[in-house]
Specification:
The chain is of the alpha/beta class.
């Protein structure tokens, strides 16, 4: 009923805890499980009786809270010195049984922490702590960086004040394999330090946005990998340039006193930035009106759409269209797109890699969206480590199965 193994039951009884009664079960590890270091699990010599009697919260039996109670002696470990002896029903340093923590972690991966706290009758601080222990144990039992060949690198803001995480995903499985606070070359360098030179040399493809610090580190540490520039970010640059043209046109009309034309232009943003297949009939009408009365703004719209077509075409034909797009943007007489043409010319080799290999940061963006959802669901995390642990639990494949399933 308790779901524990390698344990001898010595006794049990009910005790009052406020207005309710709890079940307390006296247990001790069996011979093979006793006398082991709580940190490494190696057998050690007995040192002393430690702090005496301890209790661990177990899964409820019906509506009754259950605690396991046992002595907590200390052992002398060759590697870790004097340490509290391990118990087979709980992780080192935990106040809950392993099944209790696995159940909470499984629930936390699927619902808000407040729901987990109310259902399991615990606090969010304990839930955050046990998630860290579950992730640490599960990640130590598997090589998260093993076998990866194609990766995506991206950063995400997780709190106000320019607080960022750098995330690395496996392009083949979509799994989050590494995350750390910060967004600079030193942060990404720590990933390659953990990956090691041999496995870094086995990377074949890397996708990223236009961040130079990513490109520099990848070029230095993954010399055989093909670096691809994410299409979404490139098209986003064109969308931003288009919006700048729209605002400049609106300001010019307003200053010249043509308030009617400025008013008609003010509500056309979504007609310009949305994909043509997603436009409503009214937005199609607005776009048709712009094509007749505002040639410069419509030219900016066509430049944005032509850049989308470059990535939709791919391959050798896509490279030809990209070269034509750069030439068109240079002579467009639109300052934003002239500047963008210079930027895309600088990144043209990376864009060619994208067109030929078809790699993007779509899976990285999916992970970022999931992390934003986690942050909103938890009303923010008090530390980046707590968010990383939750991300690895839900996106890194480290969520445990429900006990007994």
């Amino acid at each position: 009923m308790l779901g524990v193994e390698r344990v001898t039951i010595e006794g049990f009884g009910f005790e009052a805890d406020g207005d309710e009664e709890v079940l307390v079960v006296q247990v001790r590890p069996t011979g093979a499980a006793a006398g082991r270091c709580g940190r490494c699990g190696c057998r050690g010599r007995g040192y002393d009786q430690g702090g005496g009697i301890r209790r661990w919260r177990s899964l409820d039996l019906g509506t009754t809270r259950v605690f396991l109670q046992a002595r907590a002696p200390r052992v002398s470990c060759r590697e870790h010195g004097v340490a509290v002896a391990a118990v087979p029903w709980a992780r080192a340093g935990a106040r809950f049984t392993r099944d209790f923590e696995d159940t909470c972690a499984w629930l936390a991966a699927r619902t808000a922490a407040s729901v987990v706290c109310q259902l399991m009758r615990t606090s969010w601080r304990f839930v955050t702590g046990l998630i860290g222990r579950v992730v640490t144990e599960n990640s130590s039992q598997r090589d998260l960086l093993g076998g990866i060949r194609r990766i995506g690198i991206d950063e995400i803001s997780h709190r106000k004040g320019h607080r960022y995480l750098t995330c690395v995903i496996d392009q083949d499985s979509g799994r989050l394999v590494w995350a750390a606070p910060g967004r600079n070359s030193e942060t990404l360098g720590r990933f390659f330090d953990e990956l090691g030179p041999a496995r870094s040399a086995q990377l074949t493809h890397v996708s990223a946005d236009g961040a130079e610090w990513i490109h520099t580190v990848v070029a230095q540490r993954a010399t055989k990998a093909v670096l691809c520039l994410d299409p979404f970010h490139v098209v986003a640059w064109a969308t931003k340039a288009l919006d700048e043209v729209r605002r400049a046109t609106w300001n010019t009309l307003r200053r010249s006193g043509d308030t009617a034309a400025a008013g008609q232009l003010k509500g056309t943003r979504w007609a310009l930035v949305k994909n043509p297949e997603d436009l409503t009939p009214d937005q199609r009408g607005s776009l048709a009106g712009i094509s007749k009365v505002n040639a410069g703004l419509y030219r900016a719209y066509l430049l944005k759409e032509q850049l989308r077509a470059v990535f939709a075409t791919k391959g050798q034909r896509g490279e030809e269209l990209l070269a034509g797009w750069i030439a068109w943007a240079r002579r467009s007489q639109l300052p934003g797109f002239v500047k963008l043409a210079a930027t895309i010319k600088r990144f043209q080799p990376l864009i060619r890699n994208t067109l030929n290999h078809g790699l993007s940061n779509a899976k990285s963006e999916a992970t970022n969206t999931h992390l934003r959802m986690l942050t909103r669901r938890a009303y923010g995390f008090h530390s980046p480590e707590a968010l990383i642990a939750m991300a690895m639990l839900t996106r890194g494949g480290l969520c445990p199965a429900l006990p007994g399933r």
